[in-house]
Amino acid sequence: MNKITALLLLLFSFSTINAQEIIPFRMTKYNNLIVKTQVNNKDSLDLMFQIAMEEASVSPERKRSANHIIFKDGISDGNTITTGKNTYRDVRLFDNELTGHEADGKIGTGIFKGRIFKIDYDNHRFLVYETMPDLKGYQTVTLVYRNGQLFIQAENVIDGKTITGDFLLQSGYSGGIIYSNAFADGKDLDQKLKSLVKKH
What we know:
Elements: H1 2-18, E1 21-24, E2 26-27, E3 33-39, E4 43-49, E5 56-58, E6 75-83, E7 86-94, E8 105-107, E9 116-120, E10 125-129, E11 143-146, E12 149-158, E13 161-168, H2 181-184, H3 189-192
């Protein structure tokens, strides 16, 4: 039993060593990923990771101060964001964007630009790689990249008919799938889809 445990620890350590950066996060009861950050070495903010955006933003409903971020027409360029031992420079921040529960704002995929990142939900952390890690045991899914956002193509069976649509990957949404207006128009989804739960 000890040998098996030692082997597992060794394999786990090797996987971690391969990662150039490790960024811890906290998962809320709403399934949002919260990263503790310091902006411009002065403002401590809890930012929600949002895979559907590249930049970052602060919320009008934030609980922590963001007094050292200078906005002009709702945009602030040239900021630094530090999380743990990692510092990201020249980050653009938008002002007054709503965010998830327990967060002061959002942080997007721009901090991983040009690299590969893995969301390790079991250990509550991001692993960041310069080169592609071993993908054995994983399945490839084609993504569509459009306007800084990632979409996955899926088939929907509605009223016996198969309709293909692009769905936005959205890590800041605590529900399931949202149909866009463009997809829903003319399909009478409110009549054809069975309602399981209604929320107001």
